[in-house]
Every structure is written in structure tokens, then in C-alpha cells.
Amino acid sequence: MSVRPLILGKLHQRRAQILLPAVLLAPIFILVVYLLFETAKVSMTKVRQQFALDNAAYSQVSAASTYLNAMAMVNGPLPYRVLLSMKGDYEPLKHKNRTQEDITVFDLFYKGGGVPTIGFDYKTGDNKPPAPESIDWGLKYYDGPEVDENFPRKDWEKENPTPPDSNKHVPVMSKALVKDYYFQHKDGPFVAAVTSYLETYARVGSIYKSQDYVYQEVSRNAIMFREAYYLNVNDCKRSECARQSAAQLRQFLGLKTKPFELNKILFFLSESDRAYGHAGATDVPFVAEEILGGQKLFQFAYLDPSSRGKLKSLARGILLKQPFKLPRNHFNINLEQKYKPYVRNRVILACPRGSNNCVWPNPLPKYNVTLEP
């Protein structure tokens, strides 16, 4: 029997008509599987790199947001809330002629320019915490006749505040009120109130220094950015990871604040007590460096001009682009050379103010970080 007719007969059968195309298409199916596998590897690599960039950018800029919000809090809201408790901690102060209403120890400091208040009752300075949705806390120093006209606080409420004369003692209490109200040392609140004031601002100053130190450390050389990127990828060395995008971001991270501090401070004391009448106010000067272990008395911190410029750029957003390596493929095609793959995002640090300066004056601790593709 001839083999040829047998083969031709088999090829004309229905099974052969299905099998033959399947055999011919098998290499194509295998090729498709390889292509899907290689495409998946490329996609997974890009997703990982994009996540690493987003995580690194958010972590690093969040440190700046935390720092700026902390500065805004120590610049008035924190010491104000602490010192406001003086209203209930001490007995009301009596007028020398009993012709006026009683005042509180807090009034002496607030109306003497010793502490600012949150808005918007600037007459008494007694204000409730701002609403969560508020975008203006209205923090200001008292500006009335009880403040020493030689030391106006308006000079302090500027982006570049005017420092006080180092040869003069700056009053942080109203002499005009002490002249009319009993604020004595013997059987009075003078020592306790002055100690409370000094301790409050000394501790606030300590918080400021701690926050400033931490931020300078975590922002140096964009270390948080590079570390976060390195921990989320597996194709770069710790010392070399994300160099390009880190260099783009690093130039905007050098945010610096300057402390506004007082060394020579002036308090006032009633010259006599209620038993013998009131005879005016006596100056009680202090030198902060002598009583605070060589430290001046912190009042607030403000951004230097360079930092204000960087914040304007951060409000617009910093575009980050990071090239990355693609895994080797079975086709030995150099995709990096052909397509130059990279991931990108735009990181924004902004507060609800056009200048993007919510640190000083009128601090507002509402900096937020936003990532855009």
C-alpha cells in the first residue's frame, strides 16, 4: 500500500485540518506569552519606581510641613493658650481707688505686649480656639494706650521684624496698669506670675530649638527622600539611589527660621500694698541670659528671605523626574537606550495664603502636602 495516498487521506480528515494550524501557530502563542511576561515585568518595575518616588517625595516634604506648622504654633498660639490660664490661676487685681473693674494678671501681660492673642477680640484678648475650618487665626499683639509707646509691637509684626535695642530693657507687662492696680510682691502674685511667664517662653523656646534641629537633620542632603526611595526599590545602591530627583528637591528644602529673642526684660511691681495705699509702679529689670543659663528669652521665629522665596516655589510645585533601570528581557533588546524610561510627579507644599508664608506674621499652622502626577 502506498504511503502517499495514506498521508493525503489523513490530511483531508477534519482532525488534521485543526491540528496543522495549531502546530503552525504554537510558536506564535509562545511568543505572545513571552511578550506578556516581559510587558508585565516592565509594568511592575515602573509601578514600583513610581510608588518609590511618590513615597519619598511625600515623606521628605511632609517633614517640612511638620516643621513649618510647629513654627506657626510656637509663634503665639501655644504660649497664648498657656498664659491665658492666668485668668483663673490668680485672684483678680483691684484698682487703687476701687473706681474701676477688676482686671486679671493676664491683662497685665497681654496689654503690655508680653503675649499676642488669637483673633478677633483684641480688646480683652480672651478668645476661644479657632474653628477647624478657619484659615485666618488673626494672631496679633495688643495695640492700645496701655502698651509702652517706645516699644510698639507693630515693628514686630513684619516678615522682617525690627529687633529691639540691645541696650534697653523691653517691657513685657503694662506699666500703665500696674500704676493703677495692685500687683505686689508681698501676699501678691508677682513672683508666681513672672516665673510662669519666663518658664512658658523658655519652654516654648526649647521646643523651637528641638524642632529646628530635627528638621535640619532630616532635610540635609534630602536624606529622607533618598532613604525612602531606596527602601522601595531593589536596583540601586543606598548612596546612589534617586540622585537626580533628590537634587531637584534638595535646593528647596533649606528652610530656615530666625528666632526673635529678648535679653533685657522689664517687669513692674506695685510700690505698696493695699494696707498702705498704692504709690505707683517700680521697674523690675531682668537679664534673660543671667537667669536662663545663658539663653535669651524666645518670643517667636520668622522665615529668612531665602526661605520665603523657596516657599513660593513650593506653592507652585516642584517637578521631580527620576530615570530608572529596566530588567533584562529574553529578546536582548535594550529598552533603556531606546525609550529612556522615567517616573515623575509634582510635589506641592502650601498653606492658605498667597505668599505661602504662614509662619510669621499672623501664623497659621495649616501647611499641607499634595502630590500631582
Question: Short description, anyone?
Answer:
With 373 residues, the chain is of the alpha+beta class. 43% of the residues lie in helices and 13% in strands. A three-stranded mixed β-sheet has the order 1-3-4. It has a three-stranded antiparallel β-sheet with strand order 6-7-8.
Placed side by side, the strands forming the largest sheet appear as 1-3-4
What count of structural domains? 2
- Please report the total strand number as a whole number: 8
Contiguous helical run count: 12
If you compute it from the alpha carbons, what radius of gyration comes out, rounded to the nearest whole angstrom?
A: 34 Å
Secondary structure class reads alpha+beta
> Helical percent range?
40-55%
Overall geometry comes to rod-shaped
Alpha carbon gap, first and last residue: 74 Å
Spell out the helices and strands N to C: HHHHHEHHHHEEEHEHEHEE
Which ranges are low-confidence, i.e. pLDDT below 50, for 5 or more consecutive residues? none
Average predicted confidence as pLDDT: 91
Largest sheet: 3 strands, mixed
Strand composition percent: 5-15%
